[in-house]
Structure formats: C-alpha cells, structure tokens
Amino acid sequence: MNTVMSFKRFLALLVSRNKEFIRDRSSLSWNILMPVLIVAGFSFAFSGDIAKQYKVGVINKAAATDIASEFLQLKHIEFYPVESDREVVSRAISKVQRHQVDLLLDAEKNQYWINTESPKGYLVEKILLGTKSSDFTRQTVSGKQIRYIDWVIPGILSMNMMFSALFGVGFVIVRYRKNGMLKRLKATPITAFEYLSAQVVSRLMLIILVTAFVFYGTHYFVGFVMNGSHFNLFLVFALGSLSMISLGLIIAARISSEETAGGLLNLFSWPMMFFSGVWFSLEGAAPIMQSIAEIFPLTHVTASARAIMIDGAELADISYHLVVLLVQSVAFLLFGAWLFKWD
Amino acid sequence: MATDLLQIKNLVKHYPSVKAVNGIDITLQAGICFGLLGPNGAGKTTTVEILEGINSATSGEILYKGQPLGDQFRKEAGIMFQSTALQDFITVRETLTMFSQFYPQHADLDQLILRCNLTEYLDQDNRQLSGGQRQRLLLAIALVNNPDIIFLDEPTTGLDPQARRNFWNLINDIKEEGKTIVLTTHYMDEAYSLCDEIAIMDHGKIIAQGTPKSLLEENFNDVILQLPESELQDIDLSMYTIHKRNSYIEITTCDVNEAVSFLNKNNVSLSKLQIRPRTLDDLFLELTGKELRA
Fold first, then answer.
1. Structural domain contains residue B293
2. pLDDT for residue B141 is more than 90
3. Model confidence pLDDT, tens digit, residues A205-236
4. Rounded to whole angstroms, how far apart are CA atoms A286 and B214?
5. Confidence band (pLDDT; 50, 70, 90) for A343?
6. Does B154 lie in the same domain as B137?
7. Which residues of chain B make contact with A23, given a CB cutoff of 8 A?
8. Quick one: pLDDT band at residue A280, thresholds 50, 70, 90?
9. Last residue within a domain, chosen from B217, B243, B266
10. Is beta strand A77-82 parallel, antiparallel or unpaired with respect to A103-106?
11. Does B87 contact A at CB distance below 8 Å?
12. Same domain, B236 and B213
C-alpha cells in the first residue's frame, strides 16, 4: 500500500525545490536585497538629528523681544527666518493656513499667527504662551534612545518574510498547476501531503536562511537594538513563516491562473503590511482596526519580534502571540491540504 | 498465452456541456502496442487520462491486472503526457534522479540515459533542451520506474522528421522488451509503423478497432491513382470517386487497367501517374469524414 508520507519521496521533492530556488538568481537576490534596501533607505532618512517636531516661521528675528528670544531658544522646534516684506509675510501666512508651518511669529511685535484647525499649531501655541511659567519640579531620566529604525526593523524583517512565504509558495504551486507539472506528479506515487510538506519545509528553510542573512547583514551595516535572545527570535520567525506559508497554501490550493493568484495574494498581503503594526504603532488606532489586526499572522510576528529585540522579552512574555501563530499554522495547513487539487 | 493487462468496460465521461467519452470497451493484452487515433475533440486524450488515473470516469470500469486502478498501477505505469512542464533550474540528471526516488524500484539510470540518448545533455538545465531532447527526457521519465505499461500521448508532435524516426526506434526497442504501450497519435504512418492494434475514436466512441492491416483489408479493395490536376482538365471523371489533394486529383478505382485505359483513351499523359494503396489516412477520412489533423 502507498504510504501517506514516504521520507524518500519527500526528500527528493525538497532537494529539488531548494535547488530551484537557490539557482533562480533573480528571485534569490530580490528576496535578500529588498529588505536591505528598505532598511538602508530608512537608516539614511533617519540619520543625523532627531526630526524637529514643530516648524515656526520668525519675522524680525534680529530685533526679538526678551520673551520672544526665550521661545527661540527652545529645542526640537525648527525656526526659520521670514523677511518682514509684506509679500513674504503674506506667503508665510498662507503656509500657516495650509498646515505647512505650525506658527508664524513676529519676534519684534510679539504677534503670532496660528491656524485654529491645526493640532500642531495648537500645541506650539501652548509652548509659546507657557514659556515663562515653570512652577513644576523637573525630574530627569536617562536611557539609550530607541530610534524609529530600531522600532521598524522587526516589522520589516517580518514583512519580508510574509511576502516570501505567500508569494514564494503561492505562485510556485499555481505556476506548476498551470503548466502541468503538478499533473505529472499526480501520475506518480507522490501524495499531496508529501508534496505540500516539501514545499512548506523548503520555503521555511529558505526564509529562515535569508532572514538570518538580512538580520546580521543589516545589523553589521546599519546597527540596531537587539536586547533579546537570538534563539527566541529564531523561534518566532520560524513559527511566523510556517503560519504565513500555510496561508499561501490555502490561496494556491485550487487556482490555476497566476493573475488570480497574484490578485488574491495582494488582497492578503497588502492589508497585513499596513495594518499589522509594521510601519506605525496600532496603539491608539480605532478598536475595530486593532481587532482586525489580531487576525493577521504578521501582527503577532511583528509584535513578538519587536518585544524580543527592543524589550528583551522572553518566550513567556510573548506566549499569547506564539499560541496564536501555532493555532493559525495548524489550521491553515490542514485547511490548505484539504482544499488542495493537483489539476 | 496472451493475458489481459487492461480491461475497459463501458467507460463514460460526461462534462456539463459535452459527452467526451460515450461508452467504450477496450481490452489490452500484455506486450502489444495499442494506438488510439482520432481527430481533436474525439475524446482520446480524456480516455487516456482516465486510463492513466489522472481523470475520473463518470461511469464504467477499468481493471489493471484484474484489479481496479490503484497504488500498484501507479507504481507500474509509465506516463508521457502530451505537454508537461519540467522543473526550472534543474538539470536532466537531477530530474531523472528526482523521479526515480518516487518509486520503490527504479530502472538503472545509466542504461536509461544511454537508451534515450541523453548523455550529452545530462548537466543541461531543463529549460535549455530542444524539442527532441525534451521528448526523450520525458520518455526517460516515463520509463524511470521500469513500467509494465507505458502511455505515450502524442509523443512526436512538433518533432522534425529525423527526431520522429529516432523516437520511433526508441519505441520499437521498448516494444521488443515486451512492454505494453498505449499510444495516441495524429500521425497515421506512426500508428501503422508502431501499433499492433488500433482503435479509431470519434464523438467519444470507438468507430473501428483491429490491426492496421485487417482494418484496411476490411474497408478497402481499391487503390488510388494520383495525377496532376493540370493533366485532367476538361476530362469527365464522373464515373469515378475522386478527391482533390493539393494540386493533384486522386481517382479511386478497383480496376487499375480499366482506369488507365480510360485515361489513355482521353489522351492524358501518364508520365506523372502514381498508384498507391489505401492508407490509414484514407480509412480515417472514410470513417469520420474528417482529415485527421482537423
């Protein structure tokens, strides 16, 4: 009787698939280059001083009153000079109207323009008016700064993993179904379970290898915070990859059109990319959006990786995310295998 | 004594809009080369795919060595599809090794490579193979499990004449080993040259079955006289059955002497006269009313 799982057949498929991926130079280099380029781009964009929070135009800076001078000494506000010429002032006021400048100050006359609909304008106005009051006792803390680049890197690594998992498995299976390769395999003693397992394991190995390469390469060239255990991070990425590869199997289970598969893969990957906390924190987002984000595996991978890398979290601290990823992996795998058709 | 290797009983395959296979019965004896012929849409590929276990039948029964198709059949059958993609970025050697690992027992790969004339291309990427090389590799894959029955679905379509002849030699070698072959083809000369028995399908049914020779003898007792159309202008040929083929007129007759006398009497030059026996092409045209490649 033909067994459901023969290790010899599984290994033959696995080796063959790995060779195909490694020899496909364009695909391999894209998998490695894309996250490096994104991280390099961010690193460049956020290098140097911390971005100024507010932008204030200053007329008659040289003749500033004492109170105006005190305001002009404040940090993290970008002050730029505005000539007192009527036309220039008029253009600067237009910028305030368009939220391009948060406040316009005439330093000589202690007069300012503010857009009442601008939240940043509201805050910088409070700063301007509160400059003289300092009845609070100052307490100071110190610590290594967490830059945006440190915060965003776990998300970028996870996102790259997601694209590689979904498209790497989804497109390959659909392409082989379309060109008849799967039909040829169906005519052999290969079982669906062996074929799918080989695809999952192959992609899992390659994602982990590529992610490790990108992780250490980026760490060497750009440098980022890594306060947790590398092994714990490996576990999170392995489980996250498994979950997202399995999701790719569901998408590719029956489709034989690459266009349809591409559309469906985008339908899954783009919302995940934007609403899984990769680029911005979901704290403060609408409750409905936070609930939807819980469904996405990427949310749990990103949150876990970030907790390990930034906060040095242990597995127990991220156990909720790990359990969700494990349940999703098993559920997606079983459903994908059940749906799978050779032709 | 010949044994029945494959028995097909009242096979039916209906799709929502078409009856692709409409009740066919075939019995294949071990060691023969069986040809399934038919125009496009006749149902032969559907039939073969059901026999290969790739497609399912609406009804009917298929027995391999007396048992329904199952694991034993998958291990003992070799299949060469009409069009199969091969894995990209993998060499010929690696492809054969991979397929050989799928079976509990496999053929000696070195011998298989020699037989299918693949030695020169062993380390070549599948994507870089020519049509003939690719077909030989697909045949080698079909033979990798040392099968008892081999399905070849239009194996020489798209090959140049020399590559076709080489492929025929390969199939004849396999036949000599006593393997059973099921061949579908568009080429009548191929069927005539390779097949011990043929079945002609049209509209999902078998309309004729037997050895190529017996089918021709049963259906024809006449010959064809071919002459350039230009030689026969203004000649009344209404007493003969004629066909126009390219720039030639074909006159069908049971009495060559009488026909030649008629042509002489009408001062037709016979310098370009050709007389040929009936072929499977003629039989096909006779039975289906269609050119085989239509």
1. no
2. yes
3. 989 988 998 888 888 877 888 999 999 999 99
4. 82
5. confident
6. yes
7. 89
8. confident
9. B217
10. unpaired
11. yes
12. no
Say how many C-beta atoms besides its own lie within 10 A of residue A205's C-beta.
16
A142 touches chain B (CB under 8 A): no
Q: Which of B70, B85, B80 is nearest to B143 (CA)?
A: B80
Domain count, chain B: 2
Q: Do B71 and A180 touch (CB under 8 A)?
A: no
Is B294 inside any structural domain?
A: no
Provide, as residue numbers in chain A, all residues whose Cβ is less than 8 Å from the Cβ of B98. Answer: 12-13, 15-16
- CATH assignment at residue B100: 3.40.50.300
| Candidate from A93-97, A144-148, B239-243 with smallest mean pLDDT | A144-148
CB-based contact A133:A84 (threshold 8 Å): no
Q: For residue A195, what is the nearest residue in chain B, using CA coordinates?
A: B102
Is the same domain home to B203 and B241?
A: no
State pTM to two decimals: 0.76
pLDDT of residue A143: 56
Taking a C-beta distance cutoff of 8 angstroms, is the pair B222, B252 a contact?
yes
State the Cα angle at A5 between B81 and A203, rounded to 5°. 80
Residues in B touching A20 (Cβ below 8 Å):
87-90
The reported pLDDT for the residue numbered B209 is: 92
| Domain span at B131 | 4-217
* Same domain membership, residue B208 and residue B178: yes
User: Rounded CA gap, A333 and A192, in Å?
Assistant: 12
What are the tokens at B222? 């006449």
Whether chain A has a CB inside 8 Å of the CB on B98: the answer is yes
Q: B231 and B133 in one domain?
A: no
| Residues B166 and B39 grouped into a single domain | yes
Q: What is the mean pLDDT of residues A82-109?
A: 86
Of the partner residues A2, A15, A180, the one whose CB lies closest to the CB of residue B85: A180
Cα separation of B171 and B169, whole Å?
Answer: 5
Structural domains in chain A plus CATH codes: 7-46+147-339 (no CATH), 54-129 (3.40.190.10)
Which residues lie closer than 8 Å to A335 by C-beta, 6 or more apart? A250
Q: Are B70 and B184 in a shared domain?
A: yes
Q: Does B86 touch chain A (CB under 8 A)?
A: yes
Instruction: Return the percentage of chain B with pLDDT > 70, whole number.
Output: 98
Residue B196 lies in a domain: yes
Find the closest chain A residue to B138 by CA distance: A184
CA distance A13 to chain B (A): 7
**pLDDT (0 to 100) of residue B294:** 41
Same domain, B78 and B210: yes
Residue of A4, A7, A16 to mutate for B, most B C-beta atoms under 10 A? A16
- Angle CA A11–A15–A18, to nearest 5: 135
pLDDT per residue as tens digits for the range A244-274? 999 999 999 988 888 899 899 999 999 898 8
Domain-embedded: residue B287: no
CB of B123 within 8 Å of a chain A CB? The answer is no
